[in-house]
Amino acid sequence: MKPISDFGFRISLLGWMAVGLLLPSAAQAARFTNTPVRAIITVADKDSTVMLAGRTDVDLFYSPPNVPPGVYASIPLAGVQNARLEFTVDETAVDKAVVARRWREAAALVLRGIEPTLPYLDLPGNEAADAAASASIYLLNAAALAQRSGTEGAKAAQPLLAMVVRLSDRLQNCAAWFYGAEAARLRAVQALTSLNRLDDAVKRMEDAAIPEPGDGDFGLYWLAKATLAEARGEPREATDAAARSLAFDNKNPETFGPALMLYARSCENAQDWYRARDVYFEVSRLFRGTDYGDLARERLTFIMKEGLTSEKEAANVTKLFFGSEEDMDALATKWLDELAKLSNAAPGGAAKQEEKKP
């Protein structure tokens, strides 16, 4: 059968052959999907609308217009200049889930919408890559929330973290054109660290590009480095890395809260209860109504209840750190009392945010 020319480029491998007539080696190499994906692909500067059906590592299979079912054509992946993949995500439902901190639900809504596109995530220019990156953030948040529930929560977090790693692997294939590929690598470092796959996390961290202050990934890079250092029992390195993330990227909502919490945990691990108290106090105020604010409140309550800062601090660094000479123990106690009153006044008593499955 001769190759057939279709909208300006050569049809290779399959031509107009039916899938059932493929040679065994070609059939094994081809990966066909259950759900076709409508796409506008650009080849040789020409746009054409096709239904994507599958791929190999080097070829893309699609159904051309007006052909019998089960008949496909193929083009070399290297020839695809741009691809606009059609998918639907209920953005309103996602926004509601995010506001309510139902992270697992938010991730599921996004992944459900982009699932058919995942085999084609490396095609240049497709918007599904952005959606996959957002899903990774939601999955990390869902895993962190689940891990606060003890052993059972830690088990529930594992498949969420594993999905972050899988999405990262796919997004790494987009590095030539997708601005978020490096961030995806760094989220994988966080996920692998939480899964205790430290050797894998170290390897990815070593492969990561070191950003300069002002770069978009700066805060995430140092947060990932701090997370890994903490897991490896390197408190000084963890504290230093967290401080870098905070100092140079304090407006990024993805990194600022986690970096503050990691810094406070490092202070706790070093039994520097005064610094831990100060940071948890600020986080519980700055991030009230968020997962980080709730956890900071819990840790601040523990420190105050145990009287770990009841003795006057030998060196008053509160003025240096917060620009205040006030009694931090008194401020923390007053703040916790205010939060308790607000919780008791809420419908049903003390408000508690729970993760809900979709």
SSE blueprint and pairings:
Blueprint: E1 5-6, E2 9-10, H1 24-29, E3 31-43, E4 46-55, E5 59-63, E6 73-76, E7 80-85, H2 91-99, H3 103-114, H4 128-147, H5 151-172, H6 181-194, H7 198-207, H8 218-231, H9 235-248, H10 256-269, H11 273-286, H12 291-305, H13 318-322, H14 328-345
Antiparallel strand pairs: 1-2, 3-4, 3-7, 4-5, 5-6
Overall helicity: 40-55%
Beta content comes to 5-15%
Cα-to-Cα separation, first versus last residue = 50 Å
Q: Which word captures the global form?
A: elongated
**Separate helix tally:** 14
Strand order of the largest sheet: 6-5-4-3-7
Q: Look at the helices and sheets and give the structural class.
A: alpha+beta
Topology pattern, helix = H, strand = E: EEHEEEEEHHHHHHHHHHHHH
Average pLDDT works out at 86
Tally the beta strands: 7
Instruction: Tell me the radius of gyration.
Output: 25 Å
Biggest β-sheet description: 5 strands, antiparallel
Tags for this model:
358 residues; alpha+beta; 5-stranded antiparallel β-sheet; two-stranded antiparallel ribbon; disordered C terminus; 14 helices
Task: Give your account of this protein's structure.
The chain is of the alpha+beta class and 358 residues long. Helix content is 52%, strand content 12%. The chain has 14 helices and 7 strands. The protein has helices spanning 24-29, 91-99, 103-114, 128-147, 151-172, 181-194, 198-207, 218-231, 235-248, 256-269, 273-286, 291-305, 318-322, 328-345, and strands at residues 5-6, 9-10, 31-43, 46-55, 59-63, 73-76, 80-85. A 5-stranded antiparallel beta sheet has the order 6-5-4-3-7. Strands 1-2 form a two-stranded antiparallel ribbon. α2 packs antiparallel against α3, α4 (128-147) packs antiparallel against α5 and α4 packs parallel to α6 (181-194). The radius of gyration is 25 Å and the shape is elongated. The two termini are 50 Å apart. Residues 1-28 and 350-358 have low confidence and may be disordered.
